[in-house]
Specification:
globular; about 250 residues; 2 domains; alpha/beta; Rossmann fold; three-stranded antiparallel sheet
Length: about 250
């Protein structure tokens, strides 16, 4: 899924900037005074307990949640251009008996031609090209409902990368993926950000992968309570307090 976002000013670098952003829902303060800065090529992980506001923050960035404050995205040298955001939601569920194939799913998202009429040769080649980015060409004729957690994440990621976005946002991409699949997926994300100079913002509850892959970790508990390198955040007093742990996890 790709979403356009108006550009903002941020010197000469491509970035997402969040300044003093707050969200209230039904009189309750969900987020307060959030400041976050994501540069091109960076991978930033948002962590925090359930109900801390991580998904609300993502919805605000995507324009799906009203907020106070500033959310801006700048593209160097192209101030009037709309930045493109690729979004991978938490894994949806599909009926294993549903005949919808991966090719059909792409056709529904990328073409006005009804999926039941079948894919044209050019569309099939385009789908294969998209899947090639995530090393998933062999998935094109599989039924979506029969995909493993890791395979489904590849398909959703391939959709989010068409067209190539300026920033890629993933909501719990490791959920429902086995340990081997987690490493494969994170290696792929690392490869993609280097190949396309992507900014990547992701939420996760799997902290052990962060020191290897993330540049920055932001601990969210209705505000940014701690931000820094994975090692610094995972050993911080704030992390221990929020997750009721002693000595962090490293």
């Amino acid at each position: 899924m790709n979403i356009g976002m108006h550009g903002g000013a941020c010197g000469h670098s491509c970035c997402l900037r969040i300044e003093n952003m707050s969200v209230k829902i039904g009189g309750d303060s969900i987020l307060s005074g959030v400041n976050l800065h994501v540069h091109c090529g960076q991978m930033i992980a948002l962590i925090g307990p359930n109900g801390a506001g991580k998904s609300t923050l993502i919805k605000a960035i995507l324009g799906q949640q009203e907020y106070d404050g500033i959310i801006s995205f700048s593209v160097p040298g192209q101030r009037k251009r709309k930045a493109v955001i690729g979004y991978v939601p938490q894994s949806p569920t599909f009926d294993p008996g549903d005949p919808l194939t991966v090719a059909d799913l792409f056709a529904c998202c990328m073409s006005r031609r009804p999926a039941f009429l079948g894919l044209s040769r050019s569309m099939r080649n385009k789908v294969l090209s998209c899947l090639e980015r995530v090393h998933g060409e062999n998935l094109i004729d599989k039924r979506v409902g029969t995909l493993s957690g890791g395979e489904l994440q590849r398909v959703l990621l391939a959709l989010a990368l068409e067209p190539i976005p300026n920033i890629l946002i993933l909501d719990e991409p490791l959920s429902g993926v086995d340990v081997e699949g987690m490493e494969t997926l994170m290696d792929m994300l690392d490869e993609l950000r280097k190949s396309y100079d992507l900014s990547i913002l992701m939420t996760t509850h799997d902290f052990h992968m962060l020191p290897r892959y993330a540049d920055t970790v932001a601990l969210i508990d209705h505000r940014v309570v701690c931000e820094g390198t994975p090692e610094a955040v995972l050993q911080s007093e704030e992390f221990c307090r929020v997750f009721n742990r002693k000595g962090g996890i490293l």
